[in-house]
Design goal:
This protein is an alpha/beta fold. The chain is 41% helix and 18% strand.
Length: 242
């Protein structure tokens, strides 16, 4: 694994390939992810069977022990997640895990806790991804730009925008957004958007998400296939893997 901090790796260099994990067999998944060369473990705390901070921290520990950079996500149901608690408990859980992870992801739509998560991340010197998801469509150019600007204004170190693609025009619109702004993660979901998970990183998208079992998102590719394709098309990524 790189000796750079996650913040440094998110700012420049080869794109990162992330895999999302819950709390099942955390030690086994962490060991396998390390062996395969996963760049980033997205810890989907909303998938966990227990929201007790002690249980969550115990499930995080194997990933830290394996030396994997970690991104904590407690995704709200409104944006495709499984969090069933209230926002007060979600903010408290973010605050509890922040010292033990390398970055956090919180939704732009989570207005009640977004300032608190950003403040806690700043206090812990952790980068913040502010994310936006549309599982039905890709909004027009003005809406995409306004979303990116709002996320940046809310304190995002990186802005993540993930929308459903229905045709090549949606891919072009998202590619245009990616070329317009720095420090972005842009993903087109669905079968029409599968190519974005390999080619948008070549245009500057800092993280692409892949699957290793678990619960793949629409159009998401297995980690091994994502890594193989990026190795073929990205000399910087290939150099990192060699």
């Amino acid at each position: 694994m790189s000796t750079q901090t996650l913040r440094e790796r998110l700012a420049a260099g080869p794109p990162l390939v992330a895999v999302s994990f819950g709390d099942e067999d955390a030690a086994g998944h962490a060991a396998r992810a390390r062996a395969l060369g996963v760049d980033l473990a997205e810890l989907r705390i909303d998938w966990h069977r227990s929201a007790d901070p002690a249980d969550v921290l115990a499930a995080i520990a194997p990933f830290r022990a394996a030396g994997l950079p970690t991104l904590a996500t407690i995704r709200a149901k409104a944006e495709g997640g499984y969090w069933s608690g209230d926002d007060t408990a979600r903010l408290a859980l973010f605050e509890a895990v922040l010292p033990e992870v390398d970055a956090v992801d919180v939704e732009l739509s989570s207005a009640e806790i977004l300032p608190g998560v950003v403040a806690a991340a700043r206090a812990a010197d952790r980068p913040v991804i502010v994310s936006y998801h549309d599982f039905e469509k890709t909004p027009n150019d003005d809406r995409l730009a306004a979303t990116a600007e709002a996320a940046r204004a809310a304190g995002a170190d990186l802005v993540k925008i993930s929308t459903m693609a229905h045709d090549p025009g949606d891919l072009k619109r998202l590619a245009g957004l990616l070329l317009r702004y720095d420090s972005m993660i842009v993903i087109a979901m669905g079968h029409e958007g599968a190519a974005s998970r390999v080619f948008f990183p070549l245009l500057g998208s800092r993280i692409t998400y892949s699957a290793m079992g678990g619960r793949p998102a629409p159009g998401q590719l297995p980690f091994e296939e994502t890594a193989r394709l990026l190795t073929a098309f990205s000399p910087t990524y290939a150099g990192k893997r060699s």
